[in-house]
UniProtKB/TrEMBL annotation:
Annotated GGDEF domain residues: 271-409
NCBIfam families reported for this sequence: GGDEF (TIGR00254)
Source species of the chain: Kribbella qitaiheensis
One Gene Ontology cellular component: plasma membrane
Origin superkingdom: Bacteria
Transmembrane segments: 12-34, 79-106, 118-138, 150-179, 191-210, 216-233
Keyword hit for Membrane: yes
Keywords per UniProt: Membrane, Transmembrane, Transmembrane helix
One matching Pfam family: GGDEF
Molecular function as annotated in GO: diguanylate cyclase activity
Protein name, UniProt field: GGDEF domain-containing protein
Matches recorded under InterPro entries: Diguanylate_Cyclase (IPR050469), GGDEF_dom (IPR000160), Nucleotide_cyclase (IPR029787), Rev_trsase/Diguanyl_cyclase (IPR043128)
């Protein structure tokens, strides 16, 4: 399988491998002269379980946030668990928490290539090492239990600052090398994102303090964090994304935003990308026969079926009316056509129960026309791809509807 790292510029390859090797050296050094007590294993278990629950609870949110953050530093609240591990665990167990957290995120989200996950893990390992050096250099003890008074406060703040700075600087370095034409403002990210990082580190300090003195209270902190994560981040993200209220799909504005980023990713990684335009056939007849509320129920049911059919990394949006767009990252021309055909058959097999003024009734016999276009075969710009898919949809309708038409190879 083609691994995108090896197609990157030599400077990027050298930088990534250097960071990874340095992190491996830190991991090896962390095992030297370390004694692990039974209490350390208990704290390790609590942090591992808390991190796993947190990742699972916010999986769908973070998948979309990560897509929207392409080309900028991606931040989340995961640092609360990894930084807490730095403060209260022996180095080998702190490294294990970091590795487990990133491995779990990659397995459940799978939004980035494996080498990028390894690199992200390495940057956090090095950030944790810098934090530990600050903590132990300023504080005479070996963990948070000795961080009392002003000296302890200075040690913890210095450790948090080192953790943030090293991780941020290493990520910025990779972004600058990978995207030399990008603007500094985009690469540095938004200031508000750094407040999220600061909040995660503060929560990590609180988690560590509870683990040392009142470990059972960690459960209440986890509940609090999950509530904040789902209410604040979800609310913020949905407001920015402006999902379609009728179907729950992304609306056309956000779909185009994600499509732009995915096309940039495909161009950078030299991978293909598919776009499908789906138009329901004779949908006006449903509204005329059963009423617009019933038509809305049909649209909602079809949206649910589309979400079930697509992969985790794909994105389906509503363009308006009875038209939908489906984004298929890392999908070849043949795979795009096959996906379109599966969706066409799935729509044709639907039997939807709707509520009308006369009671419940069943709507079946639905069909759709789908136009398929693939980068780079049908075009190398998003507007060209979308026009090709739209034109193919009209061709499908003119050819008798209930069929898939693939856009021809572009001569440009």
């Amino acid at each position: 399988m083609h691994w995108a790292l090896w197609s990157a510029p030599s400077a990027v390859i050298g930088y990534v491998l250097a960071i990874d090797l340095l992190a491996i050296g830190v991991v090896a050094a962390s095992f030297v002269g370390v004694d692990i007590a039974s209490g350390d294993w208990i704290r390790f278990g609590v942090l591992a379980v808390g991190s796993a629950i947190h990742i699972e609870a916010g999986r769908e949110i973070e998948r979309l946030r990560r897509s929207a953050a392409e080309g900028t530093p991606y931040v989340n609240l995961k640092g609360m668990w990894t930084f807490a591990g730095v403060l209260v665990l022996p180095p080998p167990l702190a490294v294990a928490i970091i590795a487990l957290s990133f491995l779990h995120s990659w397995y459940r989200l799978r939004r980035i290539a494996p080498h990028r996950t390894v690199f992200s893990t390495s940057t956090v390992v090095l950030a944790a090492a810098a934090a530990a050096v600050c903590l132990y250099a300023i504080n005479p003890g070996s963990d948070l239990r000795y961080a009392g008074g002003l000296v302890g406060l200075i040690a913890v703040v210095a450790a948090a600052t080192a953790y943030w700075f090293v991780n941020y600087a290493l990520v910025i370095g990779a972004l600058l090398l990978s995207n030399p034409d990008s603007t500094a403002r985009k690469v540095l990210g938004r200031l508000s994102d750094q407040f999220i990082v600061a909040g995660a580190l503060g929560l990590g300090i609180a988690t560590a303090a509870l683990l040392m003195d009142q470990p059972w209270l960690t459960v209440t902190l986890l509940i609090t964090v999950l509530g904040l994560h789902r209410s604040l981040l979800v609310g913020q993200f949905q407001f920015a994304a402006r999902t379609d209220p009728q179907t729950g799909l992304t609306n056309t504005v956000f779909w185009h935003e994600i499509a732009t980023k995915e096309l940039e990713r495909a161009q950078h990684d030299h991978t293909s990308l598919g776009v499908l335009y789906l138009d329901l056939d004779h949908f006006k007849a449903i509204n005329d026969t059963y009423g617009h509320p019933a038509g809305d129920q049909v649209l909602k049911a079809i949206a649910a079926e589309l979400k079930r059919e697509i992969r985790t990394d794909d994105l389906v949006g509503r363009l308006g009316g009875e038209e939908f767009a489906i984004l298929l990252p890392k999908t070849s021309e043949d795979e795009t056509a096959q996906a379109a055909e599966r969706i066409r058959r799935r729509v044709a097999a639907l039997s939807i129960t709707v509520t009308t003024n006369s009671g419940s009734t069943t709507v079946d016999g639905l069909t759709c026309s789908i136009g398929a276009a693939t980068y780079p075969a049908a075009g190398d710009r998003l507007d060209v791809l979308l026009l090709a898919a739209d034109t193919a949809t009209y061709a499908a309708k003119n050819a008798g509807r209930n069929r898939v038409v693939t856009a021809p190879i572009s001569n440009g």
